[in-house]
Batch of 2 targets.
Target 1
Amino acid sequence: MTILVTGGAGYLGSVLVPKLLARGHRVKVLDIGYFGIGHLRAFRPTVELFREDIERVVNDHRFCDELLDQVDCIIHLAAISNDPSAELNPTLTKHVNFDGTLALAEEARKRGIHFVFSSSCSVYGEAPGELTEDSPLEPLTAYAHSKVEAEAALGQMAGGEWRPVSLRNGTLFGYSPRMRFDLVVNIFSLYSTLYNEIKVFGDGLQWRPYLHVNDCARAFVHFAEKRDHSHFVYNIAHENLRVVDVAGLFQQMNPRLKVSHLNMVEPDRRDYRVRASRMEGAGFLPRLTVEAGVVEITEAIINGQIPDPESIYYRNAKWLKELSELGNRSHREILGLMENIPNRAATSF
Ligand SMILES: NC(=O)c1ccc[n+]([C@@H]2O[C@H](COP(=O)([O-])OP(=O)(O)OC[C@H]3O[C@@H](n4cnc5c(N)ncnc54)[C@H](O)[C@@H]3O)[C@@H](O)[C@H]2O)c1
């Protein structure tokens, strides 16, 4: 198949793209390049790169013809991809995460292209018990709202042969060639390795479903290749844990570790755990534990595979804020700015 991966240069995309190539698919990537795209150039066979804003899909039909030429499936990951980044500019978040998704999905529907959307378990917000795909949604942030609205729009557009699928991913962890250190297991791995100390914000009693980035990438391969899914929405998760449980795992792995608690001015209300039996029924099973992810990240830090791991480059919200003061500048200006920052993430530009 020819598969277009939007956001293919991001944390998840950079793990997914080589898996698709290894399975013999031809891969196109559309990514604005907020976190660099250079690492994709190392992949073999080569990837066809469109360093473009998803905005062009909204506005430029001729561009869509070129982008979607021969494409059989779109895996749509491009997004302002976490709560703090999304709050920097909720209008931009809606534009990228909702309007961009809708425009791309319209093009996919017109052309009969299979569409796999990267949603998030954060759509559940704060709710007791194990949540299924049919549980009520309670989006608490601009990010979660954008995912809920995009899922709903896809559901309304579905019809006949065109059956888009939304994967509600849990909180990811694990090593990626485009690393993120703003995800809880990854942050704990960083500070446990460098300082023998991790900090839990608040009481740490909030539940989250966790999923290794490799397993998440495998789930996207699975749902891209399998067209006969019975549902439009799937929870994709492996282990439900509270943040204190995650900290406990780190202590078991490193008995000298100090765990401290920090008070939060505004406590994080998000608290959800999910049941993933629908995903299992569709024939997909995650394999990798939190412990496996911790070992691999620790090794990557020690081996120097991740240059300057404390840089804000690995933290989406801080990086985007530094780049742009989002909201005052256009995407084009942000990119121009990035190109002119010397030595920051030099390997990626
Ligand atoms: N990482 C997680 O824990 C997690 C959990 C649930 C859902 N998700 C979803 O999975 C997807 C991928 O997440 P990730 O962790 O790889 O995030 P990421 O921020 O590393 O990657 C997102 C990519 O999208 C690109 N992008 C952003 N705006 C764009 C635009 N206007 N036009 C084109 N490209 C644009 C960025 O340059 C980046 O490479 C996102 O949709 C995210 O919401 C992630």
Target 2
Amino acid sequence: MSIRVGIIGGGAAGLYTACQLKRQRSGKDISVTLIEKNNIPGKKLILTGHGRCNITNLKDASLLKKGFHEAENFIYPALREFGPADTMNFAENELGLKLKEEENNRIFPVCDSAVRVRDAILSYIADSTRVIKDTKVMEIRKGEDFEVITDNGTYNFDCVVLSCGGSSFTKTGSTGDSYKLAKKLGHTVIPVRGALAPVKADSESASLCKHLAGVSVSAMVSVFAEDKKTTSYEGELLFADFGLTGPAVMEISREIPADVKGTRAYLELDLVPSMNDEAFDSEFVKLIGEHADTKITTLLSRYVPASVAGEIASRCGVSDVYAQGFTKENRKKVCRLMKHLKIGIGQAPSIEAAYVTRGGVSLKEVDRKTMGSKVVPGLYIIGEALDIDGISGGYNLQACMSEAYMASKAILNN
Ligand SMILES: Cc1cc2nc3c(=O)[nH]c(=O)nc-3n(C[C@H](O)[C@H](O)[C@H](O)COP(=O)(O)OP(=O)(O)OC[C@H]3O[C@@H](n4cnc5c(N)ncnc54)[C@H](O)[C@@H]3O)c2cc1C
């Protein structure tokens, strides 16, 4: 008897499962059906990497796992069994996509086209997977087999892979259905919120961000809540009309508490992260002594872009002050802002604008070696449906691939 496998959701995780079932089946009699509510699978996949698809990150699994925060131990076996090098081999030798490595071990297709990646996957699975489009799964029931109820009829399967994604970028189809379907089947869902998201400034900091919109700086960004620093990340950030974005801000956004007001949460930017407060102050004292006829703004421009230097000087009321007339009190103010620039947070990061969803099906209820549900035998849960979010740089797509590999292996060995 053929094993009837139903894949619910045709995003990266669902499509990769179809690929893995095809490549691992080795003569086994299975029929694979993928049900997607959009008119074409992979609508989020084609947006990835700014349309270029950062498909994986070529780090060893022991390093890669650290990019998955609290889920690092859960995902480690999957990353070890089917890691970045395996993904690259598969993409190059089976999907026919040539790959290249960019900074920080990020891997992209040479064609720089996420659409070509999605289309290569669809061609690869065309002879092994029945793709049912424009069909939304409303409920999954478990009796003798799985009954998958859609807005377009009912389908029966021996096992089901739940891969309906998270709750962000809803226009791509990821509208949180994974969580509703899993809850109905008896799973616990950890409350979801945005991760890898831009941050909206509060009304006090909005004008600073607006004046500097489009300017990028390298800084240490820290999150403060209840007057305590909770996390820091060093990297590039970008001022924007609405607040802050760019890699460093996106990375720490998952740590911003949902109750921004109640916890008095804010961000702090250290614009000279290479030196501590004392070292920066003494270096600045030296600079002032050596350049008496130079404006303070010009001296600050040695550390930050001129527009940021101008904004800092203006906030300290020293825009037109030269080094020779610079008081100790003003120097303290300037150094303080350079090292501890406070940006108030207007609201918790919007889940809609987040690149990934934090939260999801509780990992306690899923077997990390098979991705099988411990609540409903025969159900497998992968991708953003799970309470896993990785940092940027190809981590999240690699997680989808590694999990798809584990689920497919378990399905075929059962
Ligand atoms: C703009 C952007 C850029 C990104 N860039 C990268 C990158 O370069 N590298 C990287 O590693 N990660 C990147 N990510 C993250 C990555 O895209 C996601 O982590 C990944 O796509 C999650 O895959 P998934 O299959 O779990 O969910 P999704 O891709 O969201 O797929 C879920 C699918 O299920 C379908 N679906 C939902 N509900 C139902 C239902 N009831 N019935 C049937 N179908 C349903 C949806 O239509 C969708 O097609 C990016 C994310 C965004 C938003």
